[in-house]
Amino acid sequence: MIRTKPSYRQVREAGPARPGSVSHKTQYALRAEHDFRAAALHPAVVTGSAFIARLRTTSREELIRLIKTGLPLASFNRLRSDLDIPFTALARVANIALRTLARRRKEGKFSANESERILRFALLFEKAVDVLGNAETARQWLKTPKKALGGKLPLDYADTEPGAREVEELLGRIEHGIFS
């Protein structure tokens, strides 16, 4: 029998986890993902696509202001879809707990530290697109282990600022034709 991921409605109707049912952790992750998708579709929220598109033309001062005021929730959801990774995977590499994401949904934006981590991955994705030529190639490159990073995925390696700088340097070497 092939098992598929239960829908949000199935999880909600199932109530608390029982033996043999979906775990509390899975229920919480599905609810959080559903809440973020709903928030991203709300017309009052600045869309994440506008945020990602502005990265290339935004000045350093504007980026600093965006970080300090906190990025909108939609920026997280858009980055998740741009990277084509699961909701929980982006939360893990950005070091944002699912419980914290639920609180941010109520607040409408991220803290400065969380915004900086989200922006780090958005900028890294944009750099990969610039160097590698298109978004699909960049996605695959970020999700494939690299020998130059000790066999780790670039997305996982970039979970800290020094790690992200190392991934950027690797992209820079690729851009200049240096074998890595």
Low-confidence stretches: 36-50
User: How much helix is in the residues?
Assistant: 55-70%
The largest sheet is: none
Instruction: Tell me the structural class.
Output: mainly alpha
Mean of residue pLDDT values: 78
Alpha-carbon distance between the two ends: 44 Å
Overview of the structural elements:
With about 180 residues, the chain is mainly α. It has one domain. It is about 65% helix and about 0% strand. It has 11 helices and no strands.
Q: Topology of this structure?
A:
Blueprint: H1 8-14, H2 24-41, H3 48-54, H4 60-69, H5 73-83, H6 87-93, H7 98-107, H8 112-132, H9 135-142, H10 154-157, H11 161-175
Put the structure in a nutshell:
By secondary structure, the chain is mostly helical. It contains 11 helices and no strands.
Keywords:
single chain, 180 residues, 11 helices, globular
